[in-house]
Design goal:
With 281 residues, this protein is mostly helical. Helix content is 72%, strand content 0%. The chain is built from 15 helices and no strands. Helix 3 packs across helix 14 and helix 9 packs across helix 10.
Length: 281
């Protein structure tokens, strides 16, 4: 009787998980299928499938409607995102290592100030930051994204790495010092290999957030030739009064492919980093 009840509970759990999983994946399925529909089928029927499909929505969407195509927006986004992610990882690791492993004057105050920035709404610094970048001549460039990333301006990532460093035994540092390693060598050869899960988590988060960023991109970038994917998608809606929605949806599918590929490639480290960050050994 108990085995039958357990079997029924497992079956019910699997059914609920399948239903919940389908409900979460359904918007993505609709996006892919609708990218192959005509405008009439997209807005004329609530059915997931249509009677006929178009096969050129991806090719036309990639080619674009003006001087610049989606290929240019794709390359621009990589030019913006890749340095931002690299500088974010490097700077956050260095700052987190300093807070986690060293004692220095005003450490508590500086750490408190850093944590206070997590509670500061981004809208409160938007105008001062824009004025600063304008005076520095950085508008319509990618510098407002890349340069701050090189100075560990994301307190969330720094705090994540601090908690991970604190979970690593200090005996590792002491053993390395006995072998003649300095602080930099300890970080590079001893701690960084153990911090792969946290580093991958930082990289994935920053890549996805920067790749999908629309608000900051539209503020600092004004030239069409420098538009990112998010701005390119928005521009296709302004191209004419008659929008080819299948092309817009097709490019939306293309735009999420790098994020999906990156996540599944680093899924092992990402899950491990999220589950272990903040746990002290």
């Amino acid at each position: 009787m108990t085995d039958a009840r357990n079997g029924s509970n497992k079956t019910l759990s699997y059914v609920l998980l399948v239903v919940l999983g389908f409900a979460m994946v359904y918007p993505l399925i609709w996006l892919v299928v609708s990218s192959l529909k005509t405008n009439a089928d997209i807005f004329g029927s609530s059915s997931l499938f249509a009677g006929s499909y178009v096969t050129d929505s991806y090719a036309k969407g990639w080619a674009g409607t003006g001087q610049y195509g989606f290929k240019d927006f794709y390359l621009n986004t990589f030019v913006l995102v890749v340095p931002t992610v690299i500088f974010t990882i490097v700077s956050s690791v260095v700052v987190a290592y300093g807070f986690a492993r060293f004692r220095f004057p005003l450490q508590t105050i500086l750490f408190s100030l850093m944590m206070a920035t997590l509670m500061l709404p981004d809208s409160t610094i938007m105008i001062p930051r824009y004025i600063l970048f304008n005076k520095m001549g950085w508008l319509d460039t990618y510098l407002p994204f890349i340069v701050p990333a090189a100075f560990a301006t994301s307190a969330f990532f720094v705090y994540m790495l601090i908690q991970f460093f604190r979970g690593l035994p200090r005996e590792l540092d002491e053993s390395a010092k006995i072998d003649g390693c300095n602080s930099f060598t300890i970080l590079i050869r001893i701690l960084l290999p153990l911090c792969k899960p946290a580093i991958f988590s930082v990289g994935i988060f920053q890549f996805i957030w920067t790749w999908n960023d629309f608000f900051n991109s539209i503020i600092y970038i004004s030239s069409v030739k420098k538009f990112t994917v998010s701005l390119g998608l928005r521009m296709t809606l302004d191209a004419s009064s008659a929008v080819s929605w299948n092309q817009v949806l097709a490019m939306s599918v293309v735009s999420i492919v790098p994020c999906i590929i990156l996540f599944f490639m680093a899924q092992k480290y990402f899950v491990e980093g999220i589950s272990t960050t903040g746990l002290k050994g």
